[in-house]
């Protein structure tokens, strides 16, 4: 380093040092109060574990409304979908699951659970479609007129029935002939002459 460069560096250091001393480190920027998120999520987990899925959804929806646009509000949408998808949730509707997962996946910044959300969304969409098909089929069955079973027989069945009747008649004739022979053989015994 040349002496001119050293002098410029020393001057710059002398001027910059007091300025840098006035700069304070900014506190870390939080997108939502961590304690509020932890409290809401814990409350939702407990409510869901107790089978109170409506309360779990309300806790997460309230948090998401209060801290809209935050990463935690985005995660709230994921957990709302999870609780709506739980088979124990009697009020569950796959349409709500898809809506919550679409909300979660809408943001261009990937969330913590993006791969899981994509897979769950595909499954929920398929289940929603299957549920509609089953419901439609059940309605069609319920609305269909009930016809009494027909007593028609096929030509082959008619032939078989005729054959059974013919065989019965032949058996009756054979039995009658056997009975006649038996009577004849067991008739009065004649003494030998």
Give the helices and strands, then pairings.
Blueprint: H1 3-22, H2 34-49, H3 53-66, H4 71-85, H5 94-106, H6 114-143, H7 155-185
Helix pairs in contact: 2-3, 3-4, 4-5, 5-6
Structure commentary:
The protein is mainly alpha-helical and 193 residues long. The protein is built from seven helices and no strands. The longest helix has 31 residues, at 155-185. It is rod-shaped. It starts with a helix and ends in an 8-residue tail after the last helix. 19% of the residues are buried. The model is unreliable at 3-31 (pLDDT under 50).
Kindly state the percentage of residues in helix. over 70%
* Topology as a string of helices (H) and strands (E): HHHHHHH
Oligomer: single chain
Q: What overall geometry do the principal axes of the alpha carbons give?
A: rod-shaped
Low-confidence stretches: 3-31
Query: Please, how many helices?
Result: 7
